[in-house]
Amino acid sequence: MTRLEGTTPFRTFILKIANRCNIDCDYCFVFNSKDQAARHLPARMDVDVARAAARRIGEHVAAHGLQTVHVVLHGGEPLLAGARHMADLLGTIREGIPAGTEVRFELQTNGTLLSNAWLDLFERHAVVVGVSLDGPPTANDRHRLTHAGRSSAASAVRGIELLRSRPHLFAGLLAVVDLANDPVEVHDYLASFEPPMIDFGLPHGTHDDPPHRDDPSVPEYGLWMSRVYDAWLARPEYRHSVRMLEDIVALSSGVRGSVETLGLAPPTSVVIESDGTVEGVDTLRSVEEGASWLGLDVFNHSFDEVLHHPKLLHRRHGKAALVEKCQSCPLVEVCGGGYLPHRFSAARGYGNPSVYCADLEYLIRHVQGSLRRHGWSPYASAAPSP
Predict the structure, then answer these.
(1) Which of 121, 209, 228, 343 is deepest in the core (most CB within 10 A)?
(2) Is residue 46 part of a domain?
(3) Within 10 A of 309 (CB to CB), how many other CB atoms are there?
(4) What whole-number distance in Å separates Cα of residue 291 and Cα of residue 354?
(5) Residue pLDDT, tens place only, 242-252
């Protein structure tokens, strides 16, 4: 197959292997947002779907000469697929991708169902595991309760402690920012588990349905994350990364990142649903019904067809896809206009700055100011270590 030039290929394939969850996070973009399509999808991904997805990944690998791909097992709660079925899916995916290609498996879980038997399986298939936890029990339980309204914190912590017994399997922790929680307390609590990485996410919101703020005139989310940054740097014994902050440092240094949430480089991830349908940005479900729908699937369409779908053209247009305010902003190389779902309004579609524009500006300037005080200037050739 001839290698395709001038196109940024997909390198991360997110497989929704379970479309049900054993807890009921109130901010969940899958089950508790505008689009309820997931409730009507198969509860778990069939092996035939995984086989078709692997074949399409293999085609993409050959077309673009990829040496490494990332396969992320996601949900819902992926452990609800069951260990035997999970093993079948992992084997099927690995068999369908050319033997010379390195496949890096990662799984994102709420941690409540983890056991030594699961970790044995993940060791056999070289799957690293990330766990979602929003902070200490009081912080976590503001949003992450069971369907019966009970705390999920103790079960999640038990799962994290199991992972810590096999640190080579521990990918990190994912937390959603809540202004009601103290940022330093949350950061230091998560850091106490010694994760390789902490990934803080901003709660999904649009211009029509903005995120909660105590004072809309203040960049409260930027202030919150700035306090995390200061806490992270204050303790030289910390060895974990904080993804959002390291991305800002790297992008400020001229590195062209490929993350969805920041920067101008074309993102390189794609989502395969449990029935084989394909989405580019599944978090668009938080925007409106059908926003993530492409009308494509792994049985009938290649990933190169997905790359060129009209709904994903924003990925290839970079700065040109942004509104004038963003294009002329001195921070655009770092901010990238913000995460696509956060730009939406019914009146102008995605033709808006991010609903977090002021927050991102505050945080980026805070990080860059800190680095300047240490003798560094933005857009240098390499990012400094935190």
Answers:
(1) 343
(2) yes
(3) 15
(4) 17
(5) 999 999 999 99
